[in-house]
Amino acid sequence: MKKVKLTAAILGLLSISQIANSATITNGNFDSGLAGWSTEGNVTLDAGGYAVLSTISGTDTSAYGGTNGSILSQTVNALAGDIISFSYSFNAGDYMPLNDFALVAGDTEYLVSDVATVGDFGSSGWKNFTFTALNDFTDLKFVVSNFGDTLFDSSLYVDNIASGPVSAVPVPAAVWLFGSGLAGLLGFNRKRAQSLAA
Question: What is the chain's alpha carbon radius of gyration, rounded to the nearest angstrom?
Fold first, then answer.
């Protein structure tokens, strides 16, 4: 009987897939305005239901390599392997070489768009952006910044911010094979012991 319980316990452990919790993003569609988000600089909610980050009347963004701009952030407690996705539109109010930019910061900083990409006074239009975190991180930040001046207004529109979980870690086939073989041996030994006792 003990062997049967041991076999059941081993098979139970083998059947558990390790799925880690993903980053928790609150109000990623801005259905509740900017609730759940922290803002620095000039961040508003558009009538279309998305966040607008503007460089005009902005905060110091020198920590990100810019001059002034706006930051939208939230504590998300993400794990390595988490997938963060969002929709954006970058609208350049400047011209080269004043390369205003937008980025998202998580485990590292990812360039979303800049003047060099969309052209002088250009727009990216609505696009999707996704990154997979290589390391755990606490805060998710969206930044739009002037570069080299503080005069012209560039903006970043953000919406549909979401996270996906770390993929399930599959139990390797060799472990399943080992578990099945172990269960078979235990069953064989039990049957053999019963036939010897008879």
Answer: 26
